[in-house]
Design goal:
Blueprint lengths: L1 E4 L13 H11 L4 E4 L2 E2 L5 H14 L4 E6 L4 H6 L7 H18 L1 E5 L4 E6 L12 E4 L3 H10 L2 E4 L5 H19 L7 E8 L3 H22 L6 H4 L4 H13 L1 H11 L1 E3 L1 H15 L3 E5 L7 H14 L1 H5 L19 H4 L3
Parallel strand pairs: 1-2, 2-4, 3-4, 4-7, 7-8, 8-9, 9-10, 9-11
Antiparallel strand pairs: 5-6
Length: 340
């Protein structure tokens, strides 16, 4: 099992400005559970400090960290840190290469366009290798190529049709084999989750809270604006603006809702199995609290999932999966989702 945190700044959207600090707190409250970052946004940080903080947290937790990295996509956050968004991809590549080398070798050094770092030791020394437990969020095909070249796994944040995700993962796996002469790690898939004994109540709550969450996504990332299409490295995201203009916010939210995991325990299990069959992920990260959901509802949601769904998922291990129950709701229209 694992617990995950995020990094976001300057708005009410998933308030957690320091994911490694949050995970350090959780490390002290737990003994065995793994600790995942989804994600450390590298362009906003000094990569040397990230390498040190990661090494420290991993040592304190006994090697329990799953390292997730990303480059960010919200203008409000780049503006707040006084950084041009068009530099995010090259900054990410330079920083990720330095951090990953440092965590393997115990030394950080870099001579690049954005980071120049003389050779220094990482202290505490890295506890153990991060190979096989480092992932990165990749929405665009260009990012997937970069992740293959960095030798990291993929974090899947559901926002496009699963058949498109599967196609892009196939290309990523091919590139990974070519670059690394090894098979790529199985991806990790996240999903906004609402589990209830009543299918009707689960749908109503999902529409209210998962739909409300995605409304906050549209606002935080300013997807209705035209800046993404005009920003180098974010042209792919600019297609989201086109779809919002074409179909309207309500249909876009409905599409996102259709990608997520909600229903009775049996329906949630079936949905997770369906996702696994499509993309080959070996881990699912459920998001159980979002959009101002009352704490008692979030706890009820998570406890039912933990009691009725998680034990069945644990039985699967790494074996091939055959879906046992067909998810009842219709798949979202693919044309609405092009570019998501």
């Amino acid at each position: 099992d694992s617990i995950w945190g995020v990094e976001h700044h300057f708005t009410d959207y998933t308030m957690c400005p320091d994911v490694l600090q949050f995970l350090s707190y959780m490390a002290g409250r737990t003994e065995r559970i793994n600790l995942g970052s989804m994600v450390v946004v590298l362009p906003w940080h000094d990569p040397l400090r990230v390498a040190e903080q990661v090494a420290m947290l991993d040592a304190m937790s006994g090697g329990r960290l799953i390292l997730g990295l990303g480059r960010g996509a919200a203008k409000v956050e780049f503006d707040g840190f006084r950084l041009p968004m068009e530099e995010s991809r090259p900054r990410f590549v330079e920083s990720a290469a330095m951090v990953l080398r440092g965590l393997e070798s115990g030394f950080c050094e870099q001579t690049g366009d954005f980071v120049t770092q003389p050779r220094v030791r990482i202290r505490p020394a890295p506890f153990k290798s991060f190979r096989g437990r480092t992932y990165a969020a990749a929405v665009s095909p260009e990012s997937a190529r970069i992740m293959a070249e960095l030798g990291v796994g993929i974090l899947i944040i559901p926002q496009k049709p699963w058949h498109e995700v599967a196609k892009e993962l196939d290309a990523y796996r091919t590139m990974y084999r070519e670059v690394n002469a090894a098979e790529a790690p199985a991806p990790i898939a996240a999903g906004w989750t609402f589990c209830d004994e009543s299918a009707d109540r689960a749908e109503a709550m999902a529409r209210q809270y998962i739909g409300g969450y995605y409304q906050s996504v549209l606002e935080h990332y300013q997807f209705a604006g035209d800046h993404l299409a005009k920003t180098r490295g974010y042209e792919y995201y600019g297609k989201m603006t086109e779809k919002i203009a074409q179909y309207g916010t309500d249909k876009v939210i409905d599409f996102f809702l259709g990608l997520q995991v909600w229903g009775t325990p049996e329906q949630c299990y079936a949905r997770i199995i369906d996702i696994r069959e499509r993309v080959g992920n070996q881990a699912f990260v459920g998001v159980f609290s979002y959009a101002g959901m009352p704490y008692d509802e979030a706890e009820r949601n998570m406890r039912l999932f933990a009691r009725a769904v998680a034990p069945e998922l644990r039985k699967l291990g790494d074996r091939a999966v055959t879906a046992g129950v067909t998810a009842e709701r219709e798949r979202p229209q693919a044309d609405i989702a092009l570019g998501f």
